[in-house]
Structures are given as C-alpha cells and as structure tokens.
Amino acid sequence: MMFSLLLNSAIAKTAKEKINVVIPAQASSRVIFGATQLVKHLNQLDYQAQIAKNNKPNARAKNIILTNQKTNGKESYAIVSDAKGNINLASGDESGALYAFITLTEQVKAQGKLPENLQIKDKPEMVLRGTAIGLQKPDYLPGRDVYEYPYTPETFPWFYDKQQWIAYLDMMLANRYNSLYLWNGHPFSSLVKLKEYPYALEVDEATFKKNEEIFKFLTEEADKRGIWVIQMFYNILIPKPFAEKHGLKTQDRNRPIIPVIADYTQKSIAAFVQKYPNVGLLVTLGEAMEGVGQDDINWFTKTIIPGVQDGLKALGSKTEPPIVLRAHDSDAPAVMKAALPLYKNLYTMAKYNGEALTTYTPRGKWADLHRSLSRIGTVHVQNVHILANLEPFRYGSADFIQKSVQAMHYVYEANALHLYPQASYWDWPYTADKAPNRLMQLDRDWIWYKAWARYAWDSKRERSAEIAYWSKELGAKYGANQETGKHILDAYEESGEISPKLLRRFGITDGNRQTLTLGMLTTQFINPFRYGVFTLMYESEAPEGEMIIDYAEKEWKKQGHIGETPVQVAKEVVEHGRKAIAAIEKAKAGVKANQDEFDRLLNDMYCYDAMANFYADKVTAALWILKFKYSNDVKDLDQALPFLESSVQHYQKLVKLTENHYLYANSMQTKQRKIPMRGVDKTFIHWKEVLPVFETELKNFKHSIDSLKSTKTASNIAVKAYENAVVKFQDKQLYYTVKEQAKAFADEDLKIKALTPELIGLNALQLSAEAQIKNGTQITFTNAKPVTVLVGFFNKKDAQFSPTPELETDASANNYGQAESKISNAIIIENYPAINVHAYTFPAGKNTLSLAKGKALVLGFIDANQKIKIFDAGLNGNGRDIDWLFGYYAPTDVKL
What are the residue boundaries of the Beta-hexosaminidase bacterial type N-terminal domain, all occurrences included (predicted)? Predict the structure, then answer.
C-alpha cells in the first residue's frame, strides 16, 4: 500500500501539464507556424502541448485558444487570460494571429513557464516594416556593368543556403518585420523563361532550376512568418545575351524607349507575375534610363503595369500584386497621377537621408517631396538607404534611430520603413571586419535591425523606459548587469552622433560616392563645388546651418552666423568621441560574455574618436586657409599648419586602429566612388592607402608656405593650352576654334565672353542648341589612340541644359571618368551660367559620346595622356582659386 502511494506521488510530480493549442480547422500557414513555435517551446519545458485544429477547447487541459474575435487594425492582436485559466488570442488578421502566438512564445521563453494573468494588446504604427538584401557585389563581374549580376551559385552562394535564409527570416519575425526587398538590376533573366525570347535567359538550365526552387522556398517560408517578398529591378536594363543578340547596350541612360526592349520587359514581368503572383515588385524608373520626364511615365504605364496585368490575365486572377514606385531620379507624383487610374495597389518610396544617415530634422525640398507622396493616399515608404557615412564601424544609437522614425511620421507624414544593412551592403552577408572567420552582418549588426524595427512598430516609446530596455538588452548581450549595459548604450549613442554630424556639415554628398570614414582632402573642404557638392544634403538633410565656405566668408565680412556651424560641429564631434571612449572603458570590467565582439566594439569607439579629431582639426585648418583666400596674408597659412599636421597624426592613429581590424572601409569598390579619392578596381578602400595622400597634401602645403615666404612676388607660370587630338567622325561636323568672341552654338548668336587659357585653340563642335534640347547629343568617332573629350556643362539645373554627370542619380555617371569637374567656372557665354569642364576618356577604336537632352559644349578632343590640371578658373566672380596650395598650380599676387 505504501509503495503504491509513493509511486502515485512520483508520477504526479513528473506528469507534465497538458496544453491544448486550439486553432481553426482551416488555419492559414501563418497561424499554423505560430502555433507550432509555441507548442515546440512549451514542450521543452514541463508541459505536454499539442495543436488541436478543431476550434474546440479541451476541458481536461489548459487551453490556448485562437478565437474568432477580431481586434482593430491589420496585424493587431490581443492575449487575455480568462477566469478558467485559459488564454484567449484575438487578432485583426492572420499576421496578427501569428504575432499573438510569437509574443506568447517569447513570454514563455523569458519566464520559463506559461505566464498567468496576461492582458496584452498591441498593433504596429507602420504598415510596412521591411529590410533589404542586395544580390549585388562590391565590384563588377567580368564584361558587365553596374547592377548586372545574374543569380548563380558562383556569384551568390549564400542565396542558395536554406539554413541561412531561415535564420534571417526568423530574425525578421522576431523583430516583426513584414517585408523583404531583394535588390538586383535585372532579376527576370535569372527567374523566368520567355518563349519569344529564349536567348534572354542568363543562367544555365541547372542554375535556373535551382533559382526556381530557392525562390519558391524563400517566398513560402517568408509567408509563414508574415513576410511579403518584394523583387526590385532597375530601368531600363536588359540581359547581356539579349543585348548582344540585338546589337544593344545592356544599359544606356540616353537612349529612347525601343519597342523590342519594351516588349521583352513587358513579357518578362508578365511571366514573373504569373509564376510568383504573391511577390511584389519594386520599380526604380530612374538611374538606368534618362531621369525625370515623359519616358518615366510611359515606361511605367505602358510597359510595367501592362506587364503585371498580362500576368494576372494569364493566371485568371484579379488580385493585383503590390507595386512599389521608387521616387529616385523620377517625377514620382506625376507618375503616380498617371498610374493610379490604371492600377490601384501602388506604393511609393523615397530615401530618408539620401544614401546616408544625417539627421532626424529633415526639411526643405526633400521633405516637400516626401509629404507630397505621403498625401497621394497610398502608403509611402521611407528608404534608409546604403548608409555610406556609417561604413564600416558599428552603429547602434537607439536615440538617433527613434528620433529618425518619429521624423518619418511627423515631418514626412510617411508610414512605412525599408531598411538597408548598416554597413557592407554590397558584400552581403559579410561584414568588413578582419577576423579569423568572416563575420556575418546578421550577427554583428543585431542592434541595427532590432532598433529600427522596435520604433517602426511604436515610435512613441518613452525615453527613460527605452534607456532601461536597451541597457538590459546590451547587458545581457555581454553577460553583464544593466549598469554595464547602460555604459555600452552611452558609447553607442555618443558615437552615433559623429558620422551624421560630420557628413551633413562638411560632406560633398549624401551618396555612396563618398566614403566618410576615409576622410576628405583639404581641397574638398575649401572648394567643394569643384567636387560636385550635393547641396540638397545641406538644404534638406541637415538642420539649418552653414557650409565651411559660407562660414569663412561671413567671418571675413564680419557677418552673423545662422544655425549649426562648422566650428560648433567640430567641437561637438570631438566631445562625442571623448564621451564614447569614457563610456566603453567603464563597461570593460563588467563584460563576461562575447568578449571578442566587445573588443571589436571598443576598437570602433576609438576609431570614431580618431576620425572625429581628424575632421575637427582639418576643418580648423581649412577655415584658416579660407581666410587666406580673402586676406592674402601668409600668416593665416601659418595658423593653419599645426592643425593640418595634427589631423594627419589623428589619421595615422586611425590607420593603426583599422589595419588589423578591417578589410576595407567601403563595400562599393568601383569607379562610382569619388570622395576622398577615386576608387577603381578596389583601390583606396583602406585607410592605409589614403594616408600617403594626406601626408603628401601636408608636404605640398608646407612647400607652398615656404615658397610664398621665399619670394616677394610669386612668378607667373606660362599656361600651356591643350593640343588637339586626331579623330574621325561618323557624321559631318561643324567646327569652331575655342576663343573669345567665338560662337558656341550653330543656331544661336551668343558668344564666348571669357575663358581659361588652357582651352584656347581647341577644335570644338558647333552643335545645334535646339537639336540638343530635343534629342540629346550623340557623337560617334574613331580614334587611333586613346582620347579625352572635354565637355562643358552649364552650372545650373534647368531643362534647357544637359545635366551635369551626377552619381547620386546616375550610376553610369563615371564610366568615362566624367563625374568630377576638371576646370570649374572655365567659360562664360553671355546671358548664360558659368560653364564647368568635364573629361570623358575613351580607348582607341570606334566610340560614341552620349549626353542627355539639353545644351552642352563639346569643346574638343585631346590626347588621353595629356595631364589635366584640376582647378577653379574663377570666371564666375566668386574669387580666386587657392587649390594650388596643395600642389595644383602656382599663385600670384600674394601679400607677404
């Protein structure tokens, strides 16, 4: 009898509590997935859980019931315990039900048991919360151009790794992301076959089958987790075999819409929609076709939308898949106005801070564009894009991110997020860290993904509670207490102000042609327009304030300053760096886990500090140098010298900090990169490569000061004009000799009033201004030796002028080395803006110079080996150029 009682007692102690998870008999894949995750984790504890697909509670067990009750709003849910001990789940839709199950699972994992007395209600603020992955590479594939990357195991082995996809999708679900964007120039030639264009397929049959399988796997697994997959593509870009078959380029920004390309593209989209009806499309109209204009509207309404509609017709479906229209380099409001009568399920997207993270106080024209798109009535998506100013150091300022999401709501009036990786976008899935095994972005940058998702779900979270939340999270990450976690958070948030402030107050561009962490040349501070400064960044993506050149001019004229100043930011970033180091040093003793990663984070804080001090000292030097521009007093250069020397010392420290910690600074390692140095074929990708440039710059500056002091009057150096090269033209051309009083256009009488001597005597082409405006400019020629074509662009954005090459909107804008102005303000034509000279270099053979619609000057052809001085001729009346201080050309009229 006693034995029986003891046995029954032991059985009672070991018996697991039964849990019945009740879902509908016809439950969706999302509901089944969520319920399965809950059951799995309950069964790992002291429970015996099972799914009941019958909507019927079990009176002998505790029930978790997905009820028929509806909550208010998409993806909304409620979790409520009742008097019987059951837990009732309600939701607004299938995703809400999934989130209810996942939230309950998280509660179970956190508490080690099934919680009691639950009263949880939640729903997201943002309609779409998505992340981006690029099927793109740091450099070009052989024989291909930018964005041209077919889906193959050789190029993207990670794309076929199912376990890696599961890990990524699980991260997305844990953070409640509901959209995944895949970026590629032209994915259709890797994913669909066309009977009309069988030669357009860019992969072999075995790879094509793998692509079908992995794409099906990815979309199904994503759907289980409430994630909508969206395939992005550029326009107009065509597959290489198709281009070769038809004697076309894969991409040509200046060509008109060609019927065979339109037909191929429409059929490709139709086949894709028919094959993957639940996959959305993200359309970039600009970049690979001529920018704003009627072509954008025609391509979207007469090719893309009809392609989607053809696919639906073939399916026998009337359910429109979503199309996201990216505003980049197009008149998105005009396109939407034309498209909405034809297609209803449209979204819009625009970059938050360009290709960077600069401010949570956006304003100006860019804010106006965002608001106009938000007010159309469809969902407008904020694209946190590229983050070129954050590469490659770790970034985790929860405060900056929360304020940015609030700005998306309250300034831009938007309600959706599209998030790029924090760094190394072009090198997915790896980071730039130099480690025994390559680190994964998913692991290293967990806080980036978690913070943006947290505030996309709810941006109004109270600050003190958020400090406690992140302190606890960071403490747990490093096996430390909450106090240590708070120190790490402080380090993240202090360092998190440095790169945004530096770029928005000193930078050349918000695009990824500038790698901020590699530094800047002094000439880029004192003469930013020579480097194509993107003024929209200062006008819209920064608080009101002043550029360095404006500040220096006001100082000389003793005028008051406005808003955020260069001197203010230089002081602030140094202080942020000091505080970041102090905070991370306080955390060191408390770290008990993930020591290697903490050491890398600590090193990043020292990198931020060195970078901040480098910029601060160089800015101070630049302001003294700009004072010299007005004063002609060499003593001002003496004042600049110690700061320039100090900046080099800080950069030397940055080189030591990065040499054994990073493989590169920038993940885009192609000719598109321009600042601080032009990067071609993976050159100037590391600080140790750039250091000699800064050291030479300092050496030249010292030499210039010595030269000024050694002579009372600087000698004028005779200017040698460029010599004409021999070329043969396909069509007959009219010439004129470049000189004062020369008539520049065949159909206008306006003449050259002034020009820099280097251009005198060139054989320029006398083109029709009217024809240029109507059709653009195409000059086909043959040359026995490599040549450089000098092209003059008017220094004003206007429909009558051909746009200056600009990498912010045109990825091909440096294919011939043309993106940077060689001679600024080089020619003055009466009643026109000043003209900047750019250089296009072509190899020997038959070549074509193509310019977008609008007036421009084809000034002549010179030998490609001719050394071109880069300077500002100053003919616009804005003062003399002082770039010669760093080795460009000799000065005149200097006061000693």
Answer: 39-122
Which residues contact residue 149 at a Cβ distance below 8 angstroms, ignoring those fewer than 6 apart?
Answer: 135, 136, 137, 141, 155, 156, 184, 185
266 in Cβ contact with 185 (< 8 Å): no
Which two structure tokens, joined as six digits, stand for 181? 């964007």
pLDDT band at 433 (very low <50, low <70, confident <90, very high): very high
pLDDT, one tens digit per residue, over 214-271 is 999 999 999 999 999 999 999 999 999 999 999 999 998 888 899 999 999 999 999 9
Run of H or E residues at 103: helix 94-111
Same domain, 571 and 692: yes
The answer to whether the beta carbons of residues 95 and 114 sit under 8 Å apart is no
Last residue of one domain, picked from the residues 90, 122, 154: 122
318 and 342 together in one domain: yes
Class of residue 319 by CB neighbours under 10 A (exposed 0-12, middle 13-18, buried 19+): exposed
pLDDT of residue 532: 85
- Same domain for 138 and 260, yes or no, is yes
Residue 715 is assigned to a structural domain of this protein: no
CA-nearest of 805, 826, 721 to 763 is: 721
| Local structure of residue 148 (DSSP, 8 states) | -
Shared domain for 110 and 141, answered yes or no, is no
Per-residue pLDDT band at 884 (split at 50, 70, 90): confident
For residues 689 and 680, give the distance between their C-alpha atoms in angstroms, rounded to a whole number.
13
Report how far apart the first and last C-alpha atoms of the chain are (Å, whole number): 114
Q: Into how many domains does the chain fold?
A: 4
User: Considering the domain boundaries, does residue 892 fall inside one?
Assistant: no
Q: Which region among 253-262, 344-353, 409-418, 855-864 has the lowest average model confidence (pLDDT)?
A: 253-262
Whole-model pTM over 0.90 = no
Q: Residue 441: its pLDDT value, please?
A: 98
Alpha-carbon gap, residue 278 to 764, rounded angstroms: 55
What is the percentage of the chain residues whose pLDDT exceeds 90? 81
Separation of alpha carbons 163 and 244, rounded Å: 37
For 293, the token pair is 């204009």
How high is the pLDDT of residue 715? 41
Q: What is the mean pLDDT of the chain?
A: 92
Nearest to 549 by CA among 512, 508, 514, 515: 508
- 677 in the same domain as 623: yes
Residues 427/429/434/438 CA torsion (nearest 10 deg): -140
Own/partner long-range contacts of 555-562 (Cβ < 8 Å, ≥24 apart) = 555/623, 555/627, 556/627, 556/630, 556/631
State the residue range of the domain holding 214: 128-459
Write phi, then psi, for 851 (nearest 5 degrees): -120, 145
Tell me the torsion sign for CA atoms 850, 854, 856, 858: positive
Give 29-48 pLDDT, tens digit per residue: 999 999 999 999 999 998 99
Which of 549-563, 697-711, 718-732, 791-805 holds the top average pLDDT? 549-563
Shared-domain flag, residues 297 and 397? yes
Q: Domain boundary at 122, 154, 185, which?
A: 122
* pLDDT 10s digits, 479-534: 999 999 999 999 999 999 999 999 999 999 999 999 999 999 999 999 998 888 99
Question: In terms of domains, do 160 and 58 share one?
Answer: no
- Paired tokens of 153: 């195991």
> Shortest CA distance to 323 belongs to which of 93, 312, 385, 315?
312
* Residue 770 shares a structural domain with residue 788: yes
In a domain, 754, yes or no: yes
Could you give phi then psi for residue 264, rounded to 5 degrees? -60, -45
